[in-house]
Amino acid sequence: MSLTVCACVLKTNADAVKTVLASKIASKAKNIVFGTSAEDFSAVKSSGDPTALFVEGPTAHSVIKNMCDDFKNPSRQVKFIYSLTAGVDAYRLHELKQEVEGIPIHNAQTLYSNILAEHVNFAMMYFNRFSWRLNEAKHQKKFEKFNMIPVEGKKVLIYGYGDIGSQCGRLAVGLGMDVTGVRRTVKDPVDQYGVKVVSDGDALLGEADFVVGVLPGTEATKQFFNMSLFKRMKPSAVFINIGRGSTQCEADIIEALNTGVIRAAALDVFEVEPLPESSPLWDPTR
């Protein structure tokens, strides 16, 4: 069966996705159509051609809803949906139960795990190796001696210990760090990488040198990382978030940084993306 591919992706990623799809599936697909709204795919919907949806970002919600509204027809036009991201909360699938019933949905789980784990461990090294100070010394051609902080023996607390979280833990353990992962269901108290796994990390917050967020965006995790949590961390601790922007309260992060409640933060996600130029997170005062 030759499928028409509808790719609803973020504008910032459109060129990269076009390149990949052109090289991987162009010869097998009947057509590849790009867009960011339901209207962009109206011609495909009218044609009735068997279709595959490639989706990314919040705008995909309306596209899925529109393209999959034939739920009373046993021969569905959309044959499968593929999310370019591991997380699927942006699509609000809980509101589209009829629309997506019976349609296979795949995501990019495990695809980004290693690179995100490298990013988390880079962030930990960044704040313990003072990379900015090295760059400034090079810029000034200044030979300067200063002490660096070893990461070996540092305690890491990872909230959201799924596949991505476990890869973060694996690399941190390899650097000699003491890692604990927090997840709702604990099968083994220690995983294959030597990471301790618990269902509640609150008692460990005050000991952690690095607190890492890998939580999905749900009602239960909304603004989970807030001032109440930051105040239970050590003033020398660093907060790192690669989960969802909705899991953090950015006003509290800014206050925590500016008042010394925590030492630093490395944020890969934000409540509004791209992060507005006016956001104080670009340049906290402290």
Automatic annotation (TrEMBL):
Superkingdom, natural source: Eukaryota
Keyword NAD applies: yes
Gene Ontology MF: a single term: hydrolase activity
Ranges of residues in domain D-isomer specific 2-hydroxyacid dehydrogenase NAD-binding: 124-283
Gene3D superfamilies with a match to the protein in the record: NAD(P)-binding Rossmann-like Domain (3.40.50.720)
A Pfam cross-reference name: 2-Hacid_dh_C
Keywords assigned by UniProt, alphabetized: Hydrolase, NAD, Oxidoreductase
Coiled-coil intervals, chain numbering: none
Descriptive protein name: D-isomer specific 2-hydroxyacid dehydrogenase, NAD binding domain/S-adenosyl-L-homocysteine hydrolase, NAD binding domain containing protein, putative
Organism: Angomonas deanei
Taxonomic lineage: Eukaryota, Discoba, Euglenozoa, Kinetoplastea, Metakinetoplastina
